[in-house]
Amino acid sequence: MLPIALGLAAAACIGVADFAAGLASRRVSSLLVGFWSQASAVIVAALLLLLLRPEIAPGQIPWGLAAGLGTGAGLALLYRAMSLGAISLVGPITACSVVVPVVYALATGETVSLTAAAGIVAIIAGVVLASLQPAPVVGDPTDTGKVGDRRAVTLAIFAAAAFGAFFILIGLAPQTGGWGALWTAGAARLTSFGVQATLALSASRAVRWPGRQGFIIVAAGLLDQASLVLVALGAMTDAYGIVTALVGLYPVVMVLLGVVFLGERLTRLQAAGATLAITGVLLVSV
Fold first, then answer.
1. CA-atom Rg of the chain in angstroms
2. Is 140 strand, coil or helix?
3. How much is the average pLDDT of 264-274?
4. Phi-psi bin for 247: left (phi > 0), alpha (psi -120 to 50), beta?
5. Terminal CA-to-CA distance of the chain, rounded, Å?
6. pTM, full prediction
7. Looking at the 3D structure of the chain, how many domains does it have?
8. What is the pLDDT of residue 273?
9. Are 39 and 275 in contact (CB under 8 A)?
10. Selection from 60, 78, 268, 276 nearest residue 163 by Cα
11. 202-249 pLDDT, tens per residue?
């Protein structure tokens, strides 16, 4: 029961965090969203390390720092994509990042299960369907424009690739018990913030506080970090596979929030693609 609760809670945190960040990206620059959300997350990560003082294994910091480059780039692309297109479309496509480490495993000589292979096929088919968006039909309108959604799909695909690189690099870090994984995660969060800070400062020499949106952005960063802690707790249980599989449900949260709070309506082709992508993510994660 505990692994199920941790997995669902982590999925909810990620889904709400990404939705909140995407909503803020439509009101202020996505670069500001990335900067302040990651700034709040890196502060919490540092506080957790100071409070818990877990043991550190050799190699954790270098691999964590390298992995953070992937998640930093992925978040920048994700926030930009959500500012252009429907959040309920971008979320499922970005979640397809789970296929990248599977492809890497195949390339390095590993074998995958029939379920994972079916998941990869479903993901590819889902992304293709979502990318081939036709003109909106009567009674089935989209919340965003055709051009915006296409650009968002392209950015979401690149975001998925960046997040996939993060998963590969984080998997190469030394495995530790207990809270030791927070060192790897903290190092990754540091370089993720570094990427966001570089992008924000390159666009503007001064990074301003984003006004009323700032509280939403900080909340997104805190929820993002909370999901990391929940997953770390899940790693301490005997059913970590269940935890990671349930975390893959976070796009469902984003889709539901987009429909309920933004009134987003995808075309039938988009909806079919998003559904296939989510199904594929779950199959690969099992």
1. 18
2. strand
3. 79
4. alpha
5. 17
6. 0.85
7. 1
8. 82
9. no
10. 78
11. 987 678 999 999 999 999 999 998 988 888 777 677 776 677 777 777
Contacts for 206 with CB less than 8 Å, ≥ 6 apart: none
Is residue 141 predicted with pLDDT exceeding 50? Answer: no
Residue of 244, 249, 223, 221 lying closest to 234 (CA atoms): 244
Among 120, 27, 39, residue whose Cα is nearest residue 75: 39
Report the amino acid identity of residue 48. L
Identify the CA nearest to 14 among candidates 286, 201, 265, 231: 231
Residue 88: partners with Cβ closer than 8 Å, 6 or more residues away: 254, 255, 258, 259, 262, 264, 266, 274
Q: Which tokens sit at 213?
A: 């949106």
- 173, 67 Cβ separation under 8 angstroms: yes
Q: Find tokens 């039909």 and name the residue.
A: 137
Classify 152 as helix, strand or coil.
Answer: helix
If you count them, how many residues does the chain have? 286
The answer to whether residue 131 scores a pLDDT higher than 70 is no
Range of 238's domain? 2-285
**Tokens 């770390």 correspond to what residue?**
232
Other CB atoms within a 10 A radius of the CB of residue 194 amount to 16
CA distance 94 to 173: 23
